[in-house]
Design brief:
The complex is a heterodimer of chains A (about 475) and B (about 475).
Chain A: H1 8-25, H2 31-40, E1 46-48, E2 59-64, H3 69-81, E3 86-89, E4 103-109, E5 116-120, E6 125-129, H4 134-142, E7 146-147, H5 160-165, H6 173-176, H7 179-182, E8 183-189, E9 195-199, H8 212-215, E10 224-231, E11 233-234, E12 238-246, H9 251-263, E13 270-274, H10 276-283, E14 288-296, H11 298-310, E15 316-322, H12 323-333, E16 349-356, H13 362-376, E17 379-385, E18 390-397, H14 399-413, E19 419-424, H15 427-430, H16 443-453
Parallel strand pairs in A: 2-4, 3-4
Antiparallel strand pairs in A: 1-2, 5-6, 6-10, 7-11, 8-9, 8-10, 12-14, 12-15, 13-14, 13-17, 16-18, 16-19, 17-18
Helix pairs in contact in A: 13-14
Chain B: H1 11-20, E1 26-27, H2 30-33, E2 50-52, H3 57-69, E3 74-77, E4 94-97, E5 104-108, E6 113-116, H4 122-129, E7 134-135, H5 148-154, H6 161-164, E8 171-177, E9 183-186, H7 199-203, E10 212-219, E11 221-222, E12 226-234, H8 237-249, E13 256-261, H9 262-270, E14 283-291, H10 293-309, E15 312-317, H11 321-332, H12 334-337, E16 344-347, H13 357-371, E17 375-380, E18 388-392, H14 399-416, H15 435-438, H16 441-454, H17 469-483
The chains are: A alpha+beta (about 475), B alpha+beta (about 475).
Chain lengths: ~475, ~475
């Protein structure tokens, strides 16, 4: 089932039926909450949830759809001063990411706060409202031969605000970096309703603390990101993707090849290792496969393809996907993980893990994930970047088996100084598994920051590390 | 070596000397302290209480703990090349000099990272790994002597940051001594995205007000396969500015895109590294492209075309590495070169949206005329980071003040067009009040709130980065009175 607030048509229907819905559940809701919200927003911006218990949690008794920063500020000010808890949602793709609250008082949706605020083509900067879906933005920018240099999951639904708040990134991070390298400014609505600007609109800026960094990846626990300014990159003039499948599956061979490529002067955009199961889904070959992409002028891309062909190990097969086919591959790639907007059937539990290790240790993590499949009686698809050290592991199976796999992988990466973050898991299981793993030794600083910015724990309460 | 005793009546100095191992690692006599009364920003000066030279993170932690317990103000200092006064001991601080902690601790080429101590010199890192074909990207002009610890404090930039980013984009982890003396490790193994708020991002560029970095894990990069450098001379500043925009609009991401105006060219040609630029041109561009060899010629061709379309007088491609290095030496010593044509100069560091370049340069010209002071412009045109150099003579009464006012006005112009007051030099002492050009009181408080989490007693590098609250009220009051 997809989110109901999908079209203008639905919205009209919802508005029409609002009174009916409201009457049905009003008894369960503090009338005060609703009447306060009504003094801030129009009725059509308020939706009372009939069913509070979403299987992924992170719901609200009342969903609000502010259309201005002022409305956001007023909702937060009210909530913060009256002890109400607020959960923030964008496109809902990360609904299963963290959070120990099944239902907060208010679910603040950014879905109606979208659009480009300012795009200065010559400066290659873009200011956009946080609720804008990522793919819509990229399509808009493509008309100007520009792009945001990020490749998050589920771009059709994920909002730019959500991508940044959760610090999502994809395989092309190897070349282009992550949100912290692209975001140059933000507007944040603090829990007390104050609007704070961080950074600015210029690509280089060291005035004051780099407050942008504080909000990127903060999972909405410090403020509501309302606007984001990004530096853009030109669209590559040409791109291609090499799929290099290792028929023997020897990790030493993959490692030797990767090290050789990394030590060359080639400039791959991604160097992503796919587990055999994932490779089978995407390429039809159930063997370890490297997805090596190049983006540059056409001559430079072909030159690099030739280099890879020259150093191609024996016992491998190679497919080169030119521009269009490469894009088709990636579009499919970005939707391989679970999507928090979809409620799967209850028979199988789905989990998504983000595992961080030192770059080349990705080999070990992907191998271990592959081996765990049979041992743990679950289906696992995994990939990881040999140039950046981040892996995504998708696990499907019975609840207890999934939980066991998470624990096993945590044990596995501990000696590698790595971490496992659970990016998607049903609410019930999040009670049993610590989504963020153990607290860092400097946790008191994180707690201190939270206490200064959101002393009442109004925003996304217990959604982040150590219960922040 | 025998440990020499410190002879002074100051108990604190004796105790600090004990921590660092005796007289050879502490300075406390006035004549020795004079060298530490300012950094690269020479207009403000103040003597420190002492300068200590710890050799390890543990010694740093002990010094900090001691200062914290005895309420002694303190600050960290690297090579002292900072241009905004971040290392000036405004409150008679104990200066913790990190210049003896200068080891390269490890290099891991396969995983592209290196671990250094804070006093390690920026360019030395590249020199240590260049034989393997690797380098460290951030390249401030002072890179031959500035330290990586200082780069972290200031979030230093450089000419090649247009393509490769500034210091913060290359920091993977650090060990930090907090202002109470507690030592923490943030991600020293360099694994990306550790769970929690991004403290690395917050600490980088915090100008030494949140903690003292004692170990840094940095990203290193593989050298580009090919590199080409273009020098273009223009008769009109507007044509040069337009060429900058056109190059970027063509979808080229140059490694560097630098500009100098006529006054700046006069300076660099009179100084140590002249390259024979014509004296009568209005602006020059220094453009560098790097990457895969097969694609470079195409990009150079496009750049030459753009320059010609914008009425370039002469444009040439560096014929060899020697010529390229000469061009860069001429540019990188540009600030100091102003000493050849003016007794004193003040460097500013505003940032503007690239498209406002012609407008802003025109307004800087007006400021120059208004104050009767020459202003040279040397800057990173590609990312809109201007460096107006206000030329003045401090011996003439009132001229220093005039230079400061002119510099501040340049920053006001940058702020007016939607830019920033500093792109890479930091706020320090110099631009504290100018913070108000771009931030509201609430936004400044949001930042000092974060400082209070790390540095609650404000003993570490107090008085930097943020405007003085008292003064702001006074200024407002004066303005109100004037209105009456």
């Amino acid at each position: 089932m997809v989110n109901q607030r999908k079209s203008a048509f639905y919205k009209t229907i919802e508005t029409m039926f609002f009174i009916t819905k409201q009457r049905g559940v009003l008894g369960l809701i503090a009338t005060e909450l609703l009447s306060e919200l009504k003094s801030i927003l129009r009725d059509s911006q308020i939706q009372v949830e009939e069913k509070e218990n979403h299987p992924l949690g992170n719901s609200g008794r009342v969903t609000v759809y502010p259309q201005s920063e002022e409305e956001m500020a007023n909702v937060l000010k009210y909530a913060d001063s009256s002890g109400k808890k607020v959960t923030i949602v964008g496109g809902g793709t990360k609904r299963g990411f963290g959070g120990l609250t099944e239902s907060a008082d208010i679910l603040l949706s950014l879905a109606d706060y979208k659009g480009v605020v300012e795009h200065t083509v010559g400066d290659m900067t873009l200011t956009v409202k946080a609720g804008t879906p990522f793919q819509a933005l990229q399509e808009y920018l493509a008309e100007y031969n520009q792009k945001i240099a990020l490749d998050p999951a589920w771009p059709e639904y994920a909002t730019i605000g959500g991508v940044i708040a959760a610090n999502d990134s994809g395989p092309k991070r190897f070349r282009y970096g992550s949100a912290r390298d692209s975001v140059i400014g933000m507007r944040i609505v603090y829990p007390n309703g104050t609007i704070i600007r961080s950074g600015g609109k210029v690509v280089k800026n060291v005035a004051g603390y780099d407050m942008n960094k504080l909000f990127i990846g903060s999972m909405g626990t410090l403020g509501v990101i309302s606007e984001v300014t990004l530096k853009l990159r030109p669209l590559p003039k040409y791109e291609s993707l090499i799929l290099l499948s290792f028929l023997e599956g020897s990790m030493e061979e993959i490692r030797a090849f990767a090290v050789r490529l990394l030590d060359s002067m080639m400039e791959p955009t991604s160097l992503e290792l796919l587990s055999p199961s994932l490779s089978e889904r995407l390429t039809g070959k159930r063997v370890y496969t490297l997805a090596i992409s190049f983006e540059d002028v056409e001559s430079a891309v072909h030159y690099q393809e030739d280099f890879v062909k020259r150093i191609q190990p024996s016992e491998t097969s190679m497919t080169v996907l030119p521009s269009k086919e490469a894009r088709v591959f990636w579009n499919q790639f970005y939707t391989i993980g679970p999507n928090g907007r979809e409620i799967g059937d209850d028979k199988e539990i789905e989990a998504a893990l983000k595992i961080g290790v030192v770059n080349l240790d990705v080999l070990q993590v992907i191998k271990e994930s592959h081996l765990l499949q049979d041992a743990a009686n679950v289906a696992i698809e995994a990939h990881g970047g040999l140039g950046h050290g981040l892996c995504q592991v998708y696990v499907k199976g019975a609840g207890e088996d999934v939980v066991a796999v998470i624990e096993r992988l945590r044990q596995f990466v501990t000696p590698l100084s790595g971490y496992v973050i659970v990016k998607h898991l049903p609410f019930v299981l999040r009670q049993k598994v610590d989504v963020w793993g153990k607290k860092p030794s400097y946790f008191f600083l994180l707690e201190g920051i939270k206490a200064k910015v959101d002393p009442n724990h109004t925003l996304n309460h217990r959604r982040f590390v150590g219960g922040i | 070596m025998a440990v020499k005793d410190v002879k002074t009546k100051d108990q604190h100095i004796e105790n600090l000397a004990k921590i660092v191992g005796g007289a050879q690692s502490i300075l406390y006599k006035k004549e020795d302290l004079l060298a530490y009364d300012c950094d690269g920003f020479t207009i403000h000066r103040h003597l420190p209480k002492a300068v200590v030279f710890p050799k390890s993170a543990e010694e740093v932690a002990q010094i900090v703990k001691y200062c914290n317990e005895h309420d002694l103000p303190f600050l960290a200092r690297g090579a002292g090349t900072g241009l905004s006064g971040g290392a000036i001991p405004l409150n008679g601080e104990v200066i913790i000099s990190l210049t003896k902690m200068k080891r390269l601790l490890s290099v891991d080429l396969e995983n592209r990272r290196a671990v250094v101590e804070p006093g390690f010199i920026n360019l030395k890192l590249t020199h240590s790994i260049s034989n393997k074909g690797y380098y460290y990207a951030p390249d401030p002009s002072s890179q031959y002597c500035c330290t990586i610890g200082g780069n972290v404090a200031e979030n230093a930039g450089g000419a090649h940051c247009l393509k490769y980013g500034v210091t913060t984009n290359h920091i993977l982890g650090m060990e930090v001594v907090l202002p109470n003396g507690e030592m923490i490790e943030i991600n020293t193994n360099g694994v990306l995205d550790p769970p929690g708020y991004d403290l690395l991002g917050l600490l980088t560029g915090s100008e030494g007000t949140l903690g003292i970095v004692t170990k840094i894990t940095v990203r290193i990069l593989k050298n580009p396969e090919a590199k080409q450098t273009v020098l273009a001379y223009f008769d009109k500043v507007s044509d040069a500015s337009q060429a900058v925009s056109d190059i970027i609009s063509a979808g080229i991401v140059p490694a560097a895109l630098e500009m100098m105006d006529k006054t700046a060219i006069e300076g660099v040609e009179a100084a140590a590294f002249p390259v024979g630029h014509p004296k009568d041109i209005e602006a020059l561009l220094l453009i560098e492209v790097d990457g895969i060899s097969a694609g470079i010629d195409e990009q150079i061709h496009e750049i030459l075309e753009v320059c010609r379309r914008r009425n370039v007088r002469e444009v040439k491609v560096a014929q060899d590495e020697k010529e390229r290095e000469r061009w860069w030496a001429n540019r990188k010593t540009g600030f100091g070169a102003m000493g050849a044509i003016s007794p004193d100069y003040l460097v500013q560091d505003g940032v503007i949206p690239r498209s406002k370049l012609p407008e802003v340069l025109e307004r800087i010209k007006q400021i120059s005329e208004k104050y009767g002071l020459r202003i040279a412009n040397i800057f990173h045109a590609g990312d809109g980071n201007l460096h107006p150099l206000v030329l003045f003579d401090a011996r003439k009464p009132g001229e220093t003040e005039k230079a400061l006012a002119a510099g501040s006005e340049c920053l006001q112009v940058c702020a007016d067009v939607g830019g920033s007051i500093t792109g890479e030099h930091g706020v320090g002492i110099e631009k504290r009040e100018e913070m108000r050009f771009i931030f509201t009181d609430e936004e400044i408080i949001a930042q000092t709130n974060i400082r209070d989490v790390f540095n609650p007693k404000n003993l570490l590098n107090a008085g930097k980065l943020f405007p003085t609250p008292g003064r702001c009220v006074e200024v407002k009051r004066n303005e109100k009175e004037k209105m009456k």
